[in-house]
Design brief:
With 275 residues, the protein is mainly beta. 11% of the residues lie in helices and 65% in strands. The two termini are 71 Å apart. It comes from Plantimonas leprariae.
Amino acid sequence: MSTLRKTIAPLAAGIALALAAGSAYAADLIEQAPLVPVEVGSGWYLRGDLSYDFKSDLDADYGMKYEDKFGTKYSKDDKFDDYGLDDNIDYGAGFGYQFTDYFRGDLTAHYWKTDLKYDGKDLGDTLCLSTAIAGYACDDSGDANAKAWELMANAYLDLGTFAGFTPYVGGGVGAVHVKYDDIKVAGHCSVGGVTCGRDVDFGLEGQGDWRFAYALTAGAAYDLTQNLKLDVGYRYLDVDSGDMYRTSLTGGDYTQKDGGFHRHTIQAGLRYSLF
């Protein structure tokens, strides 16, 4: 019995030591197991942009129905040829996805505001005279502004990366909401340079609506870091026509419609990749 105890005791001690060592090794494996990072989503990116509108065109026309002070009714439709738009800066933001090394797309929103000024001759030819005569003219002028929100879906073709630069071309379609502020118009009539009657001042109610739009772009991105790119390019935006102003006149009304916006901008922004 003594011999059996002498044999079992060392064996039990060895088994206990082996079990303890195995437990410690397993604990080390658990502690040293690497953490697997959770991906936000390879290919997604955010963008923010500033744009300078260096050239914009706006065609406009008007329609009038009114009575002069003699009770004669007139109707006139014509085009403006002297609407002016000031340069301005717009702001944009969006998110997109890089599908391949050469193709990506994004959804963007832009806000812009433009100041308008016009000097026209749309008050009619016989506002204060019963019959138009040589040297008779009626002029009017006004200042206002238009605000717009763009919602666009865009696609781009990246043309390869060279020394950190990636040139691209692209285009987009979407909708733009244009809203004109109310405008105060000052009118003045004269015959041979002498004021005829009194000056005419009237207000026009600004109109707003959603319009179809498309854009064309070209530019290049530069890798600032692995995730951050500087994006600089040219953008052309074409916005459909719509209502501008409306008011009631004696015996009729007055309306203005624009022929659409044609905006040329230089755009600079940042793109941040979420991976």
